[in-house]
Each structure stands twice: as C-alpha cells, then as structure tokens.
Amino acid sequence: MDFNKEVFKEKFKNRLDEKYALDVKDATPQELYLTLSSIVRSSYSRYWRKTWKKYMEDGKKQIYYFSIEFLPGRLLMSNLLNMGWLETVRDALKDLDIDLDEIAEVEKDMALGNGGLGRLASAFMDSLASDGLPGNGNGIRYRYGLFKQKFIDGYQIELPNEWLDSGNPWEIRRESKSVTVRLGGKVYLVDRGNYLEPVYEDAQLIKAVPYDTAIVGYKNGTVNTMRLWDAEIPSSEEAKYRTIEQRREVEDLVSVLYPDDSKESGRILRLKQEYFFVSAGIQSIVRHFKKYNKSMNKIGEYIGIHINDTHPAMSVAELMRILVDEEHMSWDDAWKQTVAVMSYTNHTIMAEALEKWPVHIMQQVQPRILQIIQEIDRRFVEEKQGKYARDMIERTRIIKDNQVRMANLSIIGSHSTNGVAKLHTELLKDDVLHDFYVMYPERFNNKTNGITDRRWLQIANPELSKVLDKAIGTEWRQDPTKLQKLLKHQNDNKVLNQIANAKLKNKERLAKFIEKETGIKVSTDAIFDVQIKRLHAYKRQLLKLMHIVKLYLDIKQGKVASDFQPRVFIFGAKAAPSYYYAKAIIKCINEVANMVNNDPEIGDKLKVVFLEDYRVSLAEKIIPAANISEQISLASKEASGTSNMKLMLNGALTVATLDGANIEIKDYVGEDNIFIFGLTKDEVYDYYNNGNYHSYDYYNNHEEIRRVLNAFVDGTIPNCQAEGQEIFDSLTKYNDEYFVLRDFESYVNIQEMVDRTYSNKRHWNQMSLVNIAYGGMFSSDDTIKRYAEDIWNISPLKDEKHG
Ligand code: 26Y
C-alpha cells in the first residue's frame, strides 16, 4: 500500500472493524496486536512471493540452515523496523491513543531454543534476508517452546510454555508442501540388477507439514523463509492408529524441545526429532530442486545445507539415501554431491555436548540411515588405511564402541567445519578435532559469531539510537561498522553526557520493571552488574555469587573500601530441568538475594535481582540498562558467547576472562577499555597436563575464600543447607572442575578496579563510548557475508532492491 500515517490509520481502523467489529477504544491489546500483525503480514506477502519467484527464475544457489533450535523472540517490532514502518506506525497509533510498545508486549516470544545456538540461528536468518542472500531456515515447530521458568521458595519450577495458545499470526501452514517421513521398522536390500532397492517393513509413516514464517530483510524488499515442521498422522495410516497412546506418540514427536534425556525413551524421542526435521527438510529441498533443475548430479552447485551443531548431522546420510536409493546415483557420485552440499558449525568443546548415539538406538529410529552411516564409515576406514596410523583412524572413524559419533559424521560428510570465535577454532584445530585438522586442513575455518544490531540496538535501545543519530548520523543503522565514527567524540562532553543520560533512562525503565516483577526497589545510582546466559557450571555464575557474598560480609564486618560503589546484581538464567547442580546454584543465588535485599544494614549498597524466565524479550529490557557485562567462563570453555557482544554494543563494560569472543572484543577496544582477569587458556591447559590443581589448598590457605565458602554451609546464608553443601563440596572435595577458587582473587581485584573506574564518571563514559563504537564490529550481517563467501558460495541477486 501507499504508505503514510493517514493511510495507515484508516487501514488499521478498517482492519480492526473487519476482524473484530470493534472500534479502537473498545479493543483489547491482544486484538490490537493481531490487527496490526495482520496488516504487517499482508503487506510483506507480495515481497515474499516475489523473492521466492526471483530465486527460482535466477536459478542460483540457495542455502538451507538446518537447526534444532530457533530463537527469534518477538517478531512484530522487528518486522516493522525491517519494513521501514516502525516510526510511522508508532506515530499513527499514538494519534489513535495506542501505545505501540504496549501492544508489542502482548506477543509471546517464539522460544524454540535454549540459548546461544538458537539465537545465533535466528540472527543469521535476519542477516541472510537483510544481506539479500538466498537463505532459508529448516527446523521443528515445537508445540511447547522452552519451559517457562518460575521461582517458588527460590527453586526453579518449569511450566509449559504455551506460545501457540493465542494463535501465531506470522506462520502459514502449507499443507500442499507436506512430505512423508519414515521412522523405525526393518529394512532389506533387494538386488535390482543395477541398484539395490531397500524394502521397508513395519515402518511408521509420519506426515510432516511445514509452517512457513517470513523473514523480512532490512529495507531491501527481500523476504526469506523459515520453515518449521509439524508432525501429523497421514490419512492413509489412520487405521493403524487405534489408541490414544499411539496417536500421542505422533504428537510427542514435535511436542517439546529437548525431551527429558535422563531416560532412554526421552533420548530415542530426541533422535527421532532430529531425523524427522532433517528428512522432511531434505525431501522438500530435493522435490523443489527436481522441479526446477535438470540434473541431480549438480545438486552441489545449487543447494547448500548447513548443519548447525551436530543435531542435524543425519542430513549427510539422508541426502545419500535419497541420491542412492531414490535417484539411483552411484555411491561415489552421490558422495561427491553430498560433501559439496553440506557444511558444519561446531558450537562447543564440552565433551558432554558432542552427541554420540548408540547403534541400537539409531537402528531403532531409522535402520536405513544406520546402514548408510555404516557404509560411510566402512569406506572412510578403507580410504584412510595406509595413509594414517591405525589409532588415528580409530579416533576419527564414525562408529566406535557401538556409538555413532555425530561430529565425526558431520566433518567427514561436509566440505567445511567452522568454529565460532578465534580461540574456539584454534582449540578445535589443535586439540578437540586435531586429527581431522591433519586429515582435512582445508576444511577448517573460523567464523566469529555476530548479533543483529537491529534488534539489540535499534529496537531494544531507542534512547541510545537517538543519541547516535545525532552524533554520527544514521548510516550505522545500515552498516553497524560505521559506529566507529563515534570514536571521534571520545572527548566530546556533550556526546558523553548524552550517552550517560540514555543509560540512565534505560536504568530507570529497568528499575521500574524490577519493582513491578519482584517488589525490589533498586537505585539507579548503583552499578547495574549483569550476568545473563544459561546456568552452567563452566559459565561460573558461582564466581559472581561468591563475589556478592564477599561484599556482603565486608559490609557487615565494616570492611568496605573507600571507593566502594553500590551495585545491583542482575541475573537471568535457566537451568536444564535435569541439571541438579545448576538448580542448586539458582536456589543459592535466590537465598543470597533474600538475605542481602532484606538486610537494613545493606540498604542500597547491594541488591541482588534474579529475574524469572530469561528469554529474548527480557534480554531486550535488561541489556540497554547494563553498566557491567559479566563474561567470566573458565578460559577455553565458552565457544564464543554472544551476550558479550550485545552488552558492549549497549555501552556496558565487560568483565571477562580471555575466553571465546571476549578475546576479539579485547582486541578491538584495547586493554584499557575492558576488565580482564583470570587464568588464560594456556594456564588452564597446563593445570590439565600437570594435574596440579588442588582446590582444597585454596580453601585452606586463603582466609578470604574460607570466609566466603563457609557462609554457604554455616547457616549464614539461610534456607539452602543442602544446596550450599553441594556447592561447597564441589569446590573443595571434588576439586572445583572450573577453577572458581583459583580465579577468585583475581576476580575480586578486577571488581575493585571496576569500582575505582566508576568513581570517575567521565572516564567511565569514555570507555562506554569506545565499547559502543566497536560493538558494530560484531554484526551478524558481516558474519553471514563471510559464511556466504567462504563456505556457501552464494551471493545476493543482482537486482537487489526488488521491492
Ligand atoms: C546435544 C545436547 C547436549 C546439546 C544441546 C544444546 C548440545 C548443545 C546445545 C547448545 C549449545 C549452545 O547453545 N552453544 C552456544 O552456542 C553459541 C553460538 O555459537 C556460543 O556463542 C556459545 O558459546 C555456545 O555455548
């Protein structure tokens, strides 16, 4: 439509009338939200159609990003911004007495992921579209998103996240694009002369139905697709599903993200999910490809499939199955195409997160896929024999000790393996995947993660955005690297004050939110010290907690340093439901919070706020208000981290170990503009190699550590006897796996430096400015351009602005 404020107002009133037969003043926020989103959707739909047609006519290569998690958060604001409508719509609604921010709050987060990996997938979707690149998402439409977290008596309780209950205006069910996925049963190979035909017995057939969501590019007319699969009973199979249990089994397939894997049934379900979305995705890609292209022998030139962590690793075998079994290609030709199509990102070096599946489970879930993996493995061993030592082949082959090693399958079956930050990629090459690096050095590359400045600055922080527009113009909105122009203003008091003012306003807004949610009153004079990420031992929320307890005891014992600065500690974190240690940490944080917040002697000096249900939309409220960003994982353990990037972009200063992308952040801002502490990766590895870390000695020999740790077990921190003891034991008796005690002193020292620095406001604001300026270097638009050039070999369509 011809777009201006008046036209929009008319359109809005008409649509509200059509949909609900209501006037603006009688409509609920929910009705207003659904009205607005329906206008937004009907306005981008023709671009969606055009983009799709263009890709087809153009016939160039397309990429499909396969991910078991997508974490887009809310879509309304981001669609409005990317369409270039945000300000006009905000204004128009104001004329109608409607507050856009209020309506936006109605939308439930699309939370089909846990954390970093899922959020990265969604940032990449946004950036692919915004760079005008032909890239689509492929995943699962979970009926329930990641659980909703509540605290009851300080304990984490998990409630179902019913994100679909009031409808999802952004998705389109595409019945006609359904495919059938085969699970379980038995398979025999029958010799048909020139090929072997697999004959299936007793397999379960599942109808996979796609739900497509538009991914609107930033003011460029490109609208890509994220396709998520639902599971249904095919009508031809209805007769086989006689009991409620049988029917429920199909529903369960897409019911929850990460089913409880403490039982085998949960693990099997998880592997079924992985095969389900991989098979549905590849079938739909191949069907589309065959319609518009001639030769399957060239599929590698036209299609790229990206394996996001190992969860979609069966893609390798599924594409082989289709090429060999259904297209009757020779194994060698099929293999060549498969390796050309596939690429893989590793997101972790933590051994427990590298998937391994028992052969018997794989057999049960999809016997033909197991056969194909066995054949890939056999050929791999055969090919490498004589070229590499036997133990090296044993370490790299796919199947070992009756386990299918999914990372090995992903690396062997693809042409590219990348890590997500410099240090992480180095660790992959030198250590975790060293054997593969020796075999295939050309396959390894680094792609440091990125974030979308549109969501994390333009949408989440309009206050700062306005300041930036005034100081350096609006170019940064298209190209975040232009934020570096800010560096010229390092000594410009006006700009420094404006940045500080924007921060203050954001702190005021968060303070109100905190009071509304928790009843806790916090002072905006205090340093807002933020740690937001999944709760995991290696991320060391415990180190932060020990620091808090130390400060509390100091104040109680009258030992406060002269330059002590009041602080508000803000946590956001979910623990995996069966991760008991992480849950014990949550309980202790909550009890420390109770103790600190209700002690009149402490007053405004310290407050501890653990916000419930950390998610994308909550992050958007916290991040703009942060002064300190806690990035304190044990060096070598955090592959990259991305909250570090979001927080610096919003002017927070980073307290960090030399881990993940913190290293690149330090390289940009310089040592003077970041607070680095703790062991380095080399020092950690020295301890591993020499086996000479004895955490008990730290407890024994350091008065300060003893004082803090004893508080966990001597009743000082009330109501967490058992949890306090568990934590105490892990740090003393069980040798403190993540070197919390080793890094404690260094951490306390750097925090004292933070206080000293904060007491000089002007200097603090200068540091903050430098961080904002370099925050633009971590744009996912740039990251995705590098994927496009180095890994996928895709480029934007020539006619870029096809709007
Ligand atoms: C298989 C199962 C145990 C599993 C489930 C979830 C394994 C891994 C994951 C998720 C991993 C994840 O989110 N990794 C994070 O990826 C981010 C994006 O690359 C990184 O920034 C972050 O350091 C890493 O922990």
TrEMBL record:
PROSITE patterns from the UniProt entry: PHOSPHORYLASE (PS00102)
An annotated GO BP: glycogen catabolic process
Recorded GO MF terms: glycogen phosphorylase activity; pyridoxal phosphate binding
Enzyme class: transferase
Enzyme Commission number, as recorded: 2.4.1.1
In-chain residues carrying the UniProt-annotated modification N6-(pyridoxal phosphate)lysine: 646
Sorted UniProt keywords: Allosteric enzyme, Carbohydrate metabolism, Glycosyltransferase, Pyridoxal phosphate, Transferase
GO cellular component: cytoplasm
Known cofactor(s): pyridoxal 5'-phosphate
Pfam family, one: Phosphorylase
InterPro entries: Glycg_phsphrylas, Glyco_trans_35, Pyridoxal_P_attach_site
Catalytic activity: [(1->4)-alpha-D-glucosyl](n) + phosphate = [(1->4)-alpha-D-glucosyl](n-1) + alpha-D-glucose 1-phosphate
UniProt-listed PANTHER family: GLYCOGEN PHOSPHORYLASE, GLYCOGEN PHOSPHORYLASE, LIVER FORM
Function (record text): Allosteric enzyme that catalyzes the rate-limiting step in glycogen catabolism, the phosphorolytic cleavage of glycogen to produce glucose-1-phosphate, and plays a central role in maintaining cellular and organismal glucose homeostasis.
Family affiliation: Belongs to the glycogen phosphorylase family.
Protein's name according to its UniProt entry: Alpha-1,4 glucan phosphorylase
Organism this protein belongs to: Ligilactobacillus salivarius (strain UCC118)
Gene name per UniProt: glgP
